[in-house]
Each structure stands twice: as structure tokens, then as C-alpha cells.
Amino acid sequence: MNLGFSAVALPAMQSVNSTVTITDDEASWIASLASIATPFGCLLSGPLLDRWGRRVALLALNLPGLVGWIVLATAKAGSGFLAQVYAGRLLTGLSLGMASVPAAVYIAEAADQSLRGMLVTWTSIFISLGILLVYLLGSLFPHDWQVVAGLCALFPVISSVVAWLLPESPVWLVGRGRTVEAEASFKRLRGVDVPRHELDALMESRQASSRAAILSDVLRPQVWKPLLILNTFFLFQQLSGVYVIVFYAVDIAHEADVQTDAYLLAVLIGATRLLCTMAVSYATVRFGRRPLSLVSGVGMTVCMAALTVYLYQGATVPWFPAIILILYILTSTIGFFTMPWAMLGELFPLRFRGLAGGITSCCAYTFSFAVIKVYPQMKYTLGSEGVFCFYGVTALLGSVFVWFWLPETQGKTLEEQLAVGFAANLGNVASGMSLGFSAVALPAMQSAHHTPYVSDEQASWIASLVPLGMPGGCLLMSPMLDGLGRRRTLMLVNVPAFLGWLLIATASHSQPWFLYQVYAGRLLTGIAVGLVGTPAVVYVGEVLTKTWRDIAGTWSSLGISLGIVMVYVMGSLFQDNWRLVAGICCFFPAVSIAAVWCVLPESPVWLVSRGWVQEAEASMRRIRSVPLEESLPEKLQQELDAMMHSSTGLDKKSNWKDTLKFLKRPEAYKPLLIMNGFSFFQQFSGIYVVIMYTVTIVRQTGVQVDGYLVTVLIGITRLVMSFVISYASRWCGRRLLCNISGIGMALSIGLLAGFLSLMHHEVISPETAMTYGWVPITALLLSVLMATLGFLPLPFAMLGEVFPAKIKGWACGLSSFLGTIYFFLAIKLFPQMRYWIGSHNVFIMYAATIAIGTVFTYLYLPETHGKTLKEIENFFRGDDKVKGGGEDAKELMPEPENFESFRSSGKAAGGDKTAREVMLGPRALEEGEVLGPNVTKR
């Protein structure tokens, strides 16, 4: 309530009907004084926690809050008005600082470990609830902020009563040597007697923590490392504008040109934060802190970038800024708003928890005071769009910090798997930039003042050279995957992208070298697009468990969507400087190379196929977080054995006759036909036409809306839905999502085709078309939304799953090659088809194609969700025992006679050879020996 109070009180104080008059500077002090007092409350909370206990601290923090609200509620107009309001805000700020640490520490110490990840986020839930309540009170009493303050005074009283009923933290009691009371507290909290091992652990911790913490202890690595990490996280949290939006919600609604009631928007923001915080408390248990924080940072960046572009262009779409602000609150609550506070009670050792928690909270609210106080000056100096741009850049830098330094406290194995999935797909961001670049560069190249001028024919080649170069990249990709390995390929595919962007960024200002450089750059970036997609999905399909393969498999599409949005935003910011946009794009291939080099091990499937079994095991241990000193778990050993069996003989070079012979097998030709059919329907469904010709299509409808704004909206829609599909595919499966996607696309494209047909046959007049201009815009956005559910990401996501290891590189290359040919034809033919049969008939054809494609996927597309690669291969072979996992999976893996005994003893039946010796031959594991043909120990 203290955080949100200024948002509803300041507009009332500064209204023309107010009995007092305050300046903007005085208003900024009223807003920020709570933050300047908060650090002192944080410093008080440490000694209170350590000396008097968690329960007493939870009681004491309510006293200054109660007094502060009473002082505010009784403030009267006159010479002492400001002093009384300032004093009330200081006292409530002091209470806020005292409350920041005790709740998180108490929950972390008292809750069961299985529930701790969820319960520590409840601090943020109740903060969000308080913000929503004060926003609601402000909307009910918009001109009587003192009534609002009086009602707020009730809540410290309620909090004190509830805190009085709590038992003391058993951790603090053990630390004081009060073991009997600690056992009683445990029993009261858990409902059962304390587990002996947990109490013993607390006793040991108490013996190690008998000395009180002093400031010199901060120099210990177990203190200064989490202290530095959390304080940096808090710095990025505050500089990204999270609390500024809370404190100045109504004012920011006016600055963002929101055309709805500002108090209503404030209530919507509060409700969004509350609901999202409740969802995060459960999502944290499943996904962990780091993934949610990364999603949060990227989402905040995208929202602030979209709002910056909107304000910079001076567009007038009343609902757009309101939606962006609500999305910003939603994404910030997923991680940046909640996670620093949730981790406050976890990262520090017991003895230093009070001291370190107090220091961290003190720094956090000091940052908050500075950011809130300078917001009015920043708005005056930089303008609203400059402030929002600053917040977006800070959120992006914060995401980078989270990726490299924030520790995961919720599940290391999951974090490692998702990390390799993210790094493998990072190159797709540059691919998305290549696809979207022509949309923002061509208008500048064809403007009257551009030198040299680019004709329509030259512009069409600049746009289409990327899809023309993609088939060449697909053909190169196959031998690179099989010959060089997945990891080297994922690094090398970024080289042509870097060179291509460099050529475009340094393009000459005179003919003919201008066209030569731009054409060559676009062709190179097209080759890179063809190269980069398949290695990522193959790598993800081979290294991740089947549980997380479904999520990370869609990240290729997510990376492309992010790249498209980023290049659209940069193009809107630098409309006349496409060379600068290309120069910025150069950095992303370099970042991708660095990420692959630092994060990714080689695929264990490829290593086994080359005979490097020990390296394959080391790679699997790294990905699945199994320490070297521990034995490989039985399930992972079975997986490694299956790789060895499936890859027998793959290190031998096969000629084209062997490949053609293998293609006669159903497990080879069936997925090849199905995936190429799926790719055909994807490309000729018109979805890429919608993405690459958005401005043209919008103008064709006669709607008076900025085409570039619609382009950014489409990019954001695709990006958000890519996040959704990456998690939805884990529970819904491929087939269901594809069917929903196809039906939705057919309906939305059909709606657009119907609107264009009515215009073409003059059933509706141009004036009527302008009145109902929201219909085609909605149809375009819905088509992209529904396509992203299935038809856009899944043809690429499934490439790494459906082909046998023997032909995986070759089959993926061929499928990608044909897919890019379809892509080029669809993009290149659209202008001619529109001229030949009219835009309305083109979209009717697209709707019919989607309908046929939906029937195709319903009849023939297999369900790969939850199945191992071996199960998928056996499905195409016609094995009736495909169940999707469990014990049935063991029946599906044909094994040599001696494999049965590997699981129990590691020896082959009837002898004393290990599994590796059976596969690789005698003396295979001796140090420095040659392991067989093309097999060495490196």
C-alpha cells in the first residue's frame, strides 16, 4: 500500500479542486521519501532479526507503519501540511524497509523445502495485493486521499494480530540453544515431530554460527558473492523502471498517451501484478528462478522497445500503450519484480543472514529512491520515449547479467538442459534479423533522398536473395553436421552471417558497388539462415531429455521471432540509417559463437557415432549435471547403451547407394515424406507472406493505420506466442497444437480473404472499410498468433526428432533445402499472383491450402511428444508397441545378446568384457590405444 499510495494521492493533491497546492518538486519528494527511509528500516531489520527473533521483528515492523498512516490521514491544509505528509511518508517507508527481510527469512527457515520455492514468492503476492487495494481505494475516493490513508492504517493492526499468533522460527531458536522450543515450533509448523536429520543439521549449523556476524565477515566468499550478485540484480530491477511504474502509475498512463481512465488502468496494472505473482509462486517450483528471470527481462525489453517506438513515431492507437504497460507489468512480475526478494532468504548463510539481508535491502531501496526521485527530471531531459528506451536497455542488460551470474536455487539439472537449449538456438536470432531486415531497410533505400536510388526490381532482389541463399546453406549443413559435429557446426554457421552483415553495414554509396555489396551481404546472410536452423534442432533433439526436448525444440522459432522483433524496433528507431541497423546486427552472430563455445558440449549421439564413448559420457554428465565422482544413473546408462547400439557402424563412410538403399526402409522414407509435406503446406499457407509483406497488405485493405506499427505488433505477437508454445508443447503434444493452429489460421486468413473480396466486389464502400478497419488488422494478428501455435515452429522443431541417426544429417539437409525452395517461391510469386488473380483470390487460395494442410497433419503427422528417439524410429518402422515411454520403451530397443547384463553388472553375459569393450573391441579402453577404425581416445 505504501508503494502504490503516491500513484493515487499525487493526482488528487495536484488537482485544481485540491485544498492544497504542491509543486512537481514537492510531489517528487512525497513519492520518493518512502524510499529514502526504507534503507534505514532495512538496517534496523538485521539486528532485530538476529537479537530478538523473527517473530518479534514481524511484530515491531508494524508500529511505524501504523503511526505513519495516521499522520497522513490527519494532515490538514496549512503551513505544517508538507511537514506532516513528509513525516508520514518517512515513517511508512521505515516500516517498508523493516518488513522487506523478516518475512522472506521466516518462510525460508520455517517452510518445508518442497514448498519453500513457492512460499518465498508470497511476499511479492502480498505486496501486489497491497498495491491493488490502494489503487482500488484511490479509484473509489479519487479526491480524498486522506480517507485512503485512514483505511490503510487498519492493515498494520491486522498484521500485528496475525504475527502474534505465529511460532518463532525453529532455526533462530536452535541458534539460541533453545532446542526444546525449536522442536515444539517445528511440530506446530509442520504438524508432525521434527525429522531428526533436519534438527541435527540445524544443531551443526548453530555450532558453526555461534559467533555473531560482524562487518568483516562480509569479506568471506560465501557472503560477498551472493551479496554482490543480489545487489546487482536489485540495481537492474530498479533501473528498469519496475517501481517507477508502481509509484507513478497514473502519471505514466498520461505520459504514455493512454486514452482510457488513468485510475482504471492503475487498477488493471495492480490486478495484473497480483494475478501474475500468484502464478509465479507455482511456476517457480516447476521452472526455477533463472528461466523465469530471463523470460521476464526479455519481455520487459520488448515492451519498453514497443512503447518507445510508439511514442517516437507519434502514432495514435488508443489501446496500444495500455496493453503494452499491462504486458510490461506482467513480464516484470514473472521475474525482475519478485525473484530478488524471493532469493533474499535463501542465498546467505544462517549466521550472516540478518546482516547481509539488511545490507542488500538497504541498497535496493537506496537504488529505488534514486530512480523514483530522478524520474521527473529524466522525463524533462530525455522525453517520455527516452526514459522508456533507457528502461528497456537496462532490462536487456539485466537479462544478460541473469544469464551469466544469477545462481539457480531450484533445480540445477533443469537449468543446465535449458541453458544448452538456449545457447544452441541463439544463432536463430540473427536469422530472424535477416528475414525482417528488408522490411525496414527498403523504405529507406527507396526514399527520395537516398543515394543511390533503389528501383522496385532491385528492391525485390534485395528482399528475395535471403530465401534464395537458404537452399545453399541447407546443402552445406548436412556434411558439416556429420563431418564436423554439432558443436563446431553451430559455431561455423555464424561466420557467413557476420560477414554478410558486415558487407551490408559498409556498403558503398555509389553504384555499382552498392548493389554488389548489398546483394552479396544478403546472399551470405541467406546462406547463414539455411545453415543455422537444423543444427540447433538436431542438437536439442539429441542432448535433452524427452521431457524438455519438446520445450527447447520450439526455441528455433522463438529465436527467429525475437530477431524479427528486434530488427523491426531498430528499424523504427533508425528509419533513415539502415547501415547502422546492419552494424548492430553484426554483434549477434559473434555472441552466438561465444555462447556455443562457452556453454555447449558436443552432442553425445555424434560422439558415440565416431566411437568416442568416454567423451560422450562426459558430455552427458555435463548436460545432466552428474558429477564425475558419482556413477552414471541407470537411466542415463541405458540411454548411452542405446546410443551405442543405434550408432554401430555409423562411423563408417556410406556412399549414395547405401543411403538410397536405407531410404527404402519405412523409418527413413515415411518421416521424409511427412516432413516435406508439412513444410510445403507451411510455406504455401501464406504465413511468411503476411510477415514479409505486412505493410503492402495493410495498405491493400485501405485501413488508415501505420503499416510499420502493425509490423511491430505482428512481431510482438509472434514472439509472445513463441514463448507460450515452448511450454505448451510439453503438455499438449505436437498433433493437437498443429490441428488447432491449422483451424485457426484457416479461419483468420479466410476472414481476411472475405473482407478483401467484399471490397473487390464493392459490396462495402471505402468509407465502410475504414470504419471496420479493425477486422483485417485483427485477422492478420490472429493468423500470426495461430500459426505460431504449430505451423510456424513445428516443421523445424521436429526435424531433429523424426529421422534415424544413420541419415539424420542428410535427411535434415534435404528437408531444409526443399523447405527453403518453397519459401523462396512463395515470397517471390506473391506480387505476381496478386497481379494475376487479385489479392482476395490469393488469400482464398491460402485459406484452402491451410485447410488441406490441417487434414494432412491430422492424418499423417506422428505424435513425438514424450517419446524417446528410439520409440519414434520404431513407430515409423511399424512397431505396434509404441506407448510413449515407461517399461514399454525397453521392449522397443533391440539389443545384442550380451546387452541385457549391462544394466546390472556392466559386464557382458558369458564373459568379463564391459559394454564399451564389446562395442569397440579388445584393449579399447587402454590409455593412448587406438580404439578401432576411426576411433581414438582423445
From TrEMBL:
Residue intervals passing through the bilayer: 28-49, 56-75, 87-107, 119-141, 147-166, 228-250, 262-285, 292-313, 319-342, 354-375, 387-406, 418-439, 459-477, 489-507, 519-540, 552-574, 580-600, 672-695, 707-729, 736-759, 771-797, 809-830, 842-861
UniProt-annotated stretches for the region Disordered: 886-914
PROSITE patterns registered for this protein in UniProt: MFS, SUGAR_TRANSPORT_1, SUGAR_TRANSPORT_2
Keyword Lyase: no
Record protein name field: Major facilitator superfamily (MFS) profile domain-containing protein
Taxonomic placement: Eukaryota, Metazoa, Ecdysozoa, Arthropoda, Hexapoda
SUPFAM superfamilies assigned: MFS general substrate transporter
GO MF terms, alphabetically ordered: transmembrane transporter activity
Cellular component annotations (GO), alphabetically ordered: membrane
